[in-house]
Write the structure tokens for this entry.
Amino acid sequence: MSKPLEFDICVIGAGAAGLSIAAGASQLGARTALIEAGEMGGDCLNVGCVPSKALLAAAKAAHSGAEAAKFGITYTKPEVDFAGVMAHVKDVIAGIAPVDSQERFEGLGVTVIREWARFVDKDRVVAGEQEITAKRFVIATGSKPMVPPIEGLADVPFLTNETLFDLQEQPEHLIVMGGGPIGCELSQAFARLGTQVSIVEMASLLPKDDPEAADVVRQSLRKDGVFLHEGAKVTRVSSPVESPFKNGGVTVEVERQDGATEQLQGSHLLVAAGRTPSIQGLDLEKAGVEFHRAGVKVDAGLRTSNRKIYAVGDVAGGPQFTHVASYHASLFIRSFLFRLPARTDYSALPWVTYSDPELAHVGLTEKMADDQGLTVQVLRWPFAENDRAQSERQTAGLLKAITTPKGRILGCTIVGAHAGEAIYPWVLALHKKLSVKDMVGMIAPYPTFGEVTKRATGSYYTPKLFSERTKWLVRLLLKLG
């Protein structure tokens, strides 16, 4: 083994969190190493956010003709070149890849090592034949698809997000195991591209979101032809003896809550049942780093049980979003390089399901507030009463804000067109602890989808504004001339 390399910071994993730390640390003058055996850019670029949104964009284009009739315009049924769609997905990845490339990071002064990393003790890592020491190590290895222990699953071909985007032939019938954000997004995309799609979900669709908002997405999926099997558990998977599909297909046995069973036959099976931390092969025990099923154990400052080692992003066992990984990176830079207090705070953490319509959320839902025993006021505004939504025929959805009786904002859910963009002011409101009064005073441009925020916050004052007491006061003032 060659002479050990010494660094200020050694980052393991070149996904969103690892890349942000490596770029920031190196540009601030820290000697930085970045270890990655797989693809630069991690899941988000290669098999996650980027390809899925590119696929959704293609599906939206295919679906636009069906929506045009609302405007008095008719198109012929689109012809989907599935290989061309996947080429578009790969092209989008290739367009972004240079930003995350080894060449760019080496240009920033980062030492990039393309090997698997493992700890040999509390302050040394080996990558390939190279030994590395550093003042601080950062574990940023992300997560991978969780494959549930279902009878027969290991014996049949199945897809995950890691293999889905390598398809060149369009599935005839895609069975999706899991009705969370990934399952819903990909199901809608494939359905709009012409694939028959069935979702099997143990609980209800989008179980972490507000049920009323989730139902808007549910109805949209049904409208697009997706078959929903909610409250159903996959008990067995097998290869059928006889199949109508040219690739042989797969049989999925489903048990419903009432005990009834059903067999679904599909050409392909997509497992989207959650994610698990990528910690295999790191030899964390040798570094004195504690971990559990959800990931590496960290404190509020993202430090592990070994004070020289941090864990960030998905592997840290918290919310699994790319924007959380970037947030963790900023906390590490603040903590180690600037020696400033840095603690995770998810009170203003937004998330978005990029279905059509989109579902965006930040803060508390009505159920979360109820579970905490809070007395709240719910402000609502339907997209059907938004002029821009009416003009574009995108009236499905609503904004639902949760406030205290005195108007302090606790959370907001928006389901509707461009909800992921419309959630921005609510994220700021939670971050800065603003009240309804702060929001209602702003001037909103007309006509915009974002006006739902102005209307919803304004509704907080409606009962008082048009009360008999207010009317009495107005009459009195009018008498004064």
Notes: The CA atoms of residues 100 and 292 lie 30 Å apart. The domain at 153-273 is CATH 3.50.50.60 (FAD/NAD(P)-binding domain).
